[in-house]
Amino acid sequence: MGIPVIDFSKLNGEERATTMAEIANGCEEWGFFQLVNHGIPEEILERVKKVCSQYYELEREGEFKNSTTTKLFNDLVVKKSGEKLENVDWEDVITLLDNNEWPAKTPGFKETMAEYRSEVKILAEKIMQVMDENLGLSAGYIKKAFDGGDGDNAFFGTKVSHYPPCPNPELVNGLRAHTDAGGVILLFQDDQVGGLQIFKDGQWIDVQPLPNSIVINTGDQIEVLSNGRYKSVWHRVLATPDGNRRSIASFYNPSLQATIAPAPELVERSANQEKDHTYPKFVFADYMSVYAEQKFLPKEPRFQAVRAM
Ligand SMILES: O=C(O)CCC(=O)C(=O)O
User: Fold this and answer.
1) Which residues form the Fe2OG dioxygenase domain (predicted)?
2) Distance (Å) from CA 237 to ligand 1 centroid
C-alpha cells in the first residue's frame, strides 16, 4: 500500500471532476498524496537534485561528521547500552528563504534553488485553490487567511535535508514523528532512498519514492481552517544504513501575524452534527511558540494551549 498518486495535469481537462475528487480524498482520508505532471519542469528538478547533493558533499558532510548528533550517536554505540537516542534526529538541515545568506561554494545552488522555490510556490497556491473549491470556500480563502490581511506576507520556506547513511539505524530516528505546524507542505524527496513514513489506521506506511513527483501534505493550520475536515498526519523519517537520503520540503505557512480560525462556513455546517468539533482561534505566532516546545508531541494539547491564550 502507498499514498495516492494523482496526475495534476488532468485538472485542466475532461477529467477535472475526477481529479478534484481524488485530491479531496487525498486530503480527507490520507493527509498525504503525491502529484505527477505537476507542472514543475523536469529540467529544474534534475538541477535541484544535482546542486543539493553537491552542496551536501562540499559544504555539509564535514560538519555533520563533527556535529553533536554524530558525537552523541558514537558515544551511544560505544556504550552498547541498548538505549535509543530520543532527542535528536539523524538529519542535516538548512532552511532557504528569499533573503537568506546563500551557500557560497556550490556552483549554481542559489540560482537553481531560487528558481525551484518560485515554481513550487506557484504549485502551492494552485493546490490551495483546489482545497478552497473542494471545501466550498470562496476562491483565494486559504491564501488570504495565511497572508494575515496585510498583502503577501505568508511564510514560504524551503528546508533542504540530508539523512546520511547510519551504521546503527535502530539507535536513532532520521526525523522523529510529528505533524507539521503550518499550512501546505510540498516535498521533493529522494528517488532512490526511502525512509519517509506516515501513520495511518494504526500502522506506519511508506511514502513510496516516485521519481520527480511532489508529495503534498497538510499541516495543523489547514486542520484548523477546515475545522478538522483535513487532518494533519503524523509522519517520520527512518534512519537507513545505505544511501544518503535527500529531501527538499517547502512550507507554505501563515504569516506570524495571521489570525487562524475555522472557516465560518465549515463551522456552521458541522454545528448540525451531534458533537462540537470547533477548533480554536489564535494568532499563528502564539501557535509557533507552543510548537517550538511540543513539536514531537500530539497536536491536541497545542490546540488547547492556544485556546487558553
Ligand atoms: O524529509 C522528509 O521526507 C520529511 C521532512 C519533514 O517531515 C519535515 O521537515 O517536517
Assistant:
1) 154-254
2) 7
